[in-house]
Model the fold of this input.
Amino acid sequence: MTPHVEPDPQTGAAVKAADRAHVFHSWSAQALIDPLAVAGAEGSYFWDYEGNRYLDFTSGLVYTNIGYQHPRVVAAIQEQAAKMTTFAPAFAIDVRSEAARLIAERTPGDLDKIFFTNGGAEAVENAVRMARLHTGRTKLLSAYRSYHGATSTAINLTGDPRRWASDTASAGVVHFWAPFLYRSPFYATTEAEECERALQHLEDTIAFEGPASIAAIILESVPGTAGIMIPPPGYLAGVREICDRYGIVFILDEVMAGFGRTGKWFAAEHFDVVPDLLTFAKGVNSGYVPLGGVAISAEIAATFDKRPYPGGLTYSGHPLACAAAVATIQVMEDEKVVEHAAHIGENVLGPGLRDLAERHPSVGEVRGLGVFWALDLVRNRETREPLVPYNAAGEANAPMAAFGAACKKNGLWPFINMNRTHAVPACNITEAETKEGLSALDAALTVADEHVA
Done:
């Protein structure tokens, strides 16, 4: 249980004033935001300087997979700092080697070589660079409903509106429709139809773009920010077969879905598919120190056996980050965090969210795995009209803003994107905490219900 912390509004005001004076925030119009000043965090909770405590149903940005301030990981970082705070990436360092070994043991198939980055976007950048160099091709295919990062190529690969301002159409990226039965672009009525038609659409896209020009197809194993749409049975295996047929590198982005989030070490395990490259970050060390990477197949790794790989980062495999990863993976093993995430999803969170859907007309669909769930909020269940328009802002987004405010009033910090709220708590959230979150969602959804036609 999080200890009681005395309110300290004066310090909170000073923190906020300094933030407003000097911090430039991402994805924001700077004069229109009002960041909460956070005083501390522990487990599944954080609190502000006013004495308000929130159950974090966002896991930070879906990365605190073992919660905040896990003592074993904190201790590992402290011990590593006392031993060796940093060292250049060209050297063999014990904790770096151990982190790579532990990650490689858990990745599917022969993805046994690990290239370390500082986060997910850099992992994607390097994965597509490897694919281009391996194939000698340049073009990249990615899905419209996707997010792959904010660096140059990664933002062009991204399918959501955050791409628009930076998309110069010069990165060699072509977007296609991945399956999403609830809002099917293929007029499908069953998962089997959606899978078949989505694969045919991808085949057609490849044919018209020219198979010999395509270096890689990148997909999130389970798309995260875009809506947590679980691929229908056979889809990822179908993409694997298409890639094999045309000599295209298959990249799975597991930055958000990996390290226990879906109730498996990696979401690819649910679909029995092995990519050529797999990107990771976030949950690899619960975000305690920035770390990401690319897990590389034997075939692609061999491309660079006698040919230098033209890429690198000053902080690649940073010892503090790797120490946090080693400790996090050990905690997840010892405390059976992955199994616990599967249990919570199957027996508490999933059933609880489906129960909410039965009682709240604003919930159009519930979907998810493990502790990775989304509620698709609608104005009309029959037409499936979203509660707010695509990429809504200002007054058009008022219903979702009101829903979010109601969550916070009830002590829940929600993950909201467009017309959806995602239930993405820590993988080790307790049953009691999960039910507390469901209760707060129950109350907040009455506000969303007011906007149902």
